[in-house]
TrEMBL record, chain A:
Signal sequence segment: none
Topology in the lipid bilayer: Multi-pass membrane protein
Keyword presence, Transmembrane: yes
Alphabetized GO MF terms: dipeptide transmembrane transporter activity
Sequence intervals crossing the membrane: 12-30, 101-122, 134-157, 177-197, 235-257, 285-307
One Gene Ontology term, aspect cellular component: plasma membrane
Protein name: Peptide/nickel transport system permease protein
TrEMBL record, chain B:
Keywords: ATP-binding, Nucleotide-binding, Transport
Species the sequence originates in: Salinihabitans flavidus
Name of this chain's protein: Peptide/nickel transport system ATP-binding protein
Stated family: Belongs to the ABC transporter superfamily.
Main location: membrane
Length: 315, 537
């Protein structure tokens, strides 16, 4: 088990190193001079050159790469070209919105999907299963921003239970802040829950057909006992994989939802940075997202091993 | 007083009749074997006793366990009976255990689900039960997971689970079919001992008459969902009143009429000091990788006209060797030459056309979207001047006719054929380009005995018509005995004994061959049985 964790950790470090090189090459070596862009079309060449020196753009590529990575390792993400504020602070601000939102949405989606998927699998082919499958079909098909608008229309504008958008900040207290995140979290969670419920159902149906489920019944377990004691844990592996992918998406992929609810999240930050050619911000956010994806995969790998003993002493 | 009495049991799934008027009984301490070929309804009979039938099954008749009619008691009561009064052991030990729970927890679960024992008591009883079935705690701690055990050991765990509450009746559905002969012998002995020790009744489902003859007190022969004959084991074998029982017996003991062949001195296949390694999972991050040597320097030569068998238990390296001979995998040492040229992954297709193979699984080894004509002509890809048009059709017709099918079958799809017919098609595919050597890789192992006998006869007939040379790989000694002239016995990556087939099996020299021959179940000698019964009466 310890060896497995060490191996996964090593693979995590290697993935990050490779990703940082790729991101640096793609973004920094791509054409387009941020200094010229920031100063506009009529800038004097010597002004541009001065800004290039200030931004560190005149160093060689390896030097800039090392400076960038070294900075990130010490917590210094550089200074935004356009806002002239430390990138680290900008990202931290946004992360305080996006990370709780993603976790909130993931929790909701799990809470909906697990019972729905297990219920449908246990009643395969019966009306209950068909109802769940119909609902998830709808959940997969309808885009999350439509859910978002409906939620705003009904719960904010008509019933006035929630505010229609914006984020008051964590200073006002956990409860009001969470309340502000509730509608976006629901809108993000519904389509994810639909997918997750379908994965849970089909995975569990596969497991229910396994020989060891029949063995469990032959021991005298009821259908329900066999399902919970022997089925669910075995069905978790594909479900965990999907959850890992979904979390990475939720962290930055909620850009439309952030727009709908006026949330200052990571998605909007990266969108603005790309429009303004603020390469240092783009680089850092992308690196952060890569880091989160790799980290989540690492955690999913560890959970696999916790769930399935067969994986513990494998390569 | 009967322990189990099945009276006029009828079973229908949807509109499909599965069982018709099945009646038999089991007394306490008695071993009753239900035997028959696939589709005879023997497994469904067992599942009917457990009341674990598919949802759409409709049952009439009575299944009496003591005084209780199991068809009437309802699911809640049935859950209390299953595992407690009736235990069941299944065919596939590799998949019958939950992979994510320890063996201790799984055996203890049977105890916990029925009784009021606390966890610690249940674990103690699980440990005793595992020790009783031959898995003592010193060597097999309760914290082991199923994947850490071999097939035979897993089957012991399944048995421990089934008998943990000392049920009155044990049902074993093909409990040894997936196991090697030596393991099979051990498990059968274990079951027999447990029955005697606990005074249980044992309902044993098996297709193997030889296994039955050794073990059962009484035999029930089934066909197409009906009981055709039943009786005390020795009397049944001595008399065999029903023609189907006789046919089954004869097919099981089938001896083919293998023609003499003309041997030629030129070798077709030469295997010299062949070594095949598999990398093992890394144990250290940067240390050298370790390897498992699956084939350890094997050498033999096949000449034209040779019909050679290769026997050994699972894991002995015979499949690995087969893949190397077919040029599918690279050797780590030694060499394999076919017709004087080296065999390997990059070999010339023309060379491949001289080596054809028939695999075990008649269901998995065809593309379901291809017609038979296309399947059979697949090897033509290997040769440059493959016939086209009329000549190709004629070749397909000839190949299909040779294996006992109709030329018109060429236009059908594979799902229209039974398992035995599919194996004929596989042979037609191997035969169509007249290979110098055919490799039969467990080619009859998945077939019922009567179909198996037909395919063996077919191989003998083809041997006569085309003077085949083949390598026949099997775990089944009785088949290899009748279909080959010479045999090689493989153990642990090495060929431990080789020689003329009759001699090797009749007078084995190597201890391992002796173990194999001794463990293989044999059919009773009918004449001997009759005399013995006459003397008694």
């Amino acid at each position: 088990m310890i060896r497995y964790v060490l191996k996964r950790t090593l693979s995590l470090v290697i993935s990050l190193a490779v990703a940082s090189v790729v991101i640096f090459l793609v973004i920094e070596v791509a054409p387009g001079d941020p200094a010229a862009f920031m100063l506009g079309l009529n800038a004097q060449p010597d002004t541009v050159a001065a800004l290039r020196t200030e931004l560190g753009l005149d160093m060689s590529n390896p030097e800039r790469y090392l400076a960038w990575v070294g900075g990130m390792l010490t917590g210094d993400f550089g200074t935004s070209y356009t806002y002239r504020t430390p990138v680290g602070e900008m990202i931290a601000d946004r992360l305080w919105v996006s990370l709780p939102l993603a976790l909130y949405a993931l929790a909701l989606s799990t809470l909906i999907a697990f019972p729905a998927g297990i219920y449908a699998a246990a009643r395969r082919g019966k009306p209950g299963d068909m109802a769940v499958m119909g609902a998830t079909q709808l959940g997969v098909a309808v885009p999350n921003f439509w859910f978002a608008m409906m939620l705003v229309l009904i719960l904010s504008i008509n019933l006035r239970w929630f505010s229609a958008g914006g984020f008051p900040g964590w200073e006002v207290g956990i409860f009001p802040a969470m309340k502000a995140l509730t509608l976006p979290a629901i809108a993000l969670a519904l389509p994810q829950a639909a997918i997750l419920a379908r994965v849970m159902r089909s995975s569990l149906i596969d497991i229910l057909g396994e020989d060891f489920m029949r063995t469990a019944r032959a021991k005298g377990l009821t259908r329900r006992q066999a399902l919970w004691r022997h089925g669910v844990r075995n069905a978790l592996i594909p479900v965990l994989t999907i959850m890992g992918l979904q979390f990475s998406f939720l962290l930055a992929g909620g850009i439309i939802i952030e727009q709908v609810f006026f949330l200052p999240g990571l998605g909007r930050l990266i969108f603005q940075a790309i429009s303004a050619r603020d390469l240092i911000v783009v680089e850092s956010v992308v690196m952060l997202l890569v880091f989160s994806v790799v980290l989540v995969n690492f955690l999913v790998d560890l959970t696999y091993a916790a769930v399935d003993p067969r994986l513990r002493n494998r390569t | 007083m009967n322990l189990l009495q099945i009276v006029n049991l009828n079973l229908q799934i949807g509109s499909l009749p599965i069982l018709r008027d099945v009646s038999f009984s089991i007394a306490p301490g008695e071993i009753v074997a239900v035997t028959g070929e696939s589709g005879s309804g023997k497994s469904m009979t067992a599942l009917a006793v457990m009341q674990l039938l598919p949802d759409r099954a409709q049952v009439t008749g009575r299944i009496l366990l003591g005084e209780t009619d199991l068809t009437k008691v309802g699911e809640a009561r049935m859950c209390a009976l299953r595992g407690n009064e009736v235990g069941m052991v299944f065919q596939e030990p590799m998949t019958a255990l939950n992979p994510v729970k320890t063996i201790g927890a799984q055996v203890a679960e049977t105890i916990l689900v029925h009784g009021n024992e606390d966890r610690a008591t249940a674990m103690t009883r699980a440990r005793d039960m595992l020790a009783r079935v031959g898995l003592p705690e010193e060597r097999f701690p309760l914290t082991r997971y199923p994947h850490e055990l071999s097939g035979g050991q897993r089957q012991r765990v399944v048995i421990a689970m089934a008998i943990a509450r000392r049920p009155r009746l044990l049902i074993a559905d093909e409990p040894t079919t997936a196991l090697d002969v030596t393991t099979q012998a051990q498990i059968l002995t274990l079951l027999k001992d447990l029955v005697a020790e606990f005074g249980m009744g044992l309902l044993m489902i098996t297709h193997d008459l030889a296994v039955v003859s050794d073990l059962a007190d009484r035999i029930v022969v089934m066909r197409h969902g009906e009981v055709v004959e039943t009786g005390e084991t020795r009397a049944l074998f001595a008399n065999m009143t029903h023609p189907y029982t006789r046919a089954l017996f004869e097919a099981s003991a089938h001896i083919v009429d293998l023609p003499e062949t003309k041997h030629a001195p030129d070798p077709i296949l030469e295997v010299r000091e062949a070594v095949r390694d598999y990398p093992l999972p890394r144990t250290t991050l940067f240390g050298p990788r370790e390897y498992h040597r699956a084939v350890k320097g094997v050498s033999f030569t096949i000449r034209k006209g040779d019909r050679i068998g290769l026997v050994g238990e699972s894991g002995c390296g015979k499949s690995t060797l087969t893949r190397a001979i077919l040029g599918l995998e690279r050797l780590q040492g030694g060499e394999i030459r076919a017709f004087g040229k080296p065999v390997g992954p990059g070999m010339n297709p023309a060379l491949r056309s001289g080596l054809q193979v028939v695999f075990q699984d008649p269901y998995g080894s065809f593309n379901p979207r291809h017609k038979v004509s296309r399947i059979v002509t697949e090897p033509y890809h290997l040769i440059d001047n493959a016939p086209t048009g009329k000549a190709r059709e004629a070749a397909v017709s000839e190949a299909l006719t040779a294996v006992g099918l109709q030329p018109s079958d060429a236009r059908k799809y594979i799902h229209e054929f039974s398992g035995g017919q599919r194996q004929r098609i596989a042979i037609a595919r191997a035969l169509i380009i007249r290979p110098e050597l055919i490799i039969f890789d467990e080619a009859v192992s998945a077939l019922d005995v009567s179909i198996r006998a037909q395919i063996l006869d077919l191989i003998a007939d083809l041997s006569r018509a085309y003077s085949l040379s083949y390598l026949f790989i099997s775990h089944d000694l009785s088949v290899v005995r009748t279909i080959t002239d010479r045999v090689m016995v493989m153990q642990d990556g090495e060929i431990v004994e080789e020689g003329e087939t009759g001699r090797v099996f009749g007078d084995p020299q190597h201890p391992y061959t002796r173990t194999l021959v001794a463990a293989a179940p044999i059919l009773p000698d009918v004449r001997h049985l009759k005399e013995a019964l006459n003397v008694q009466s």
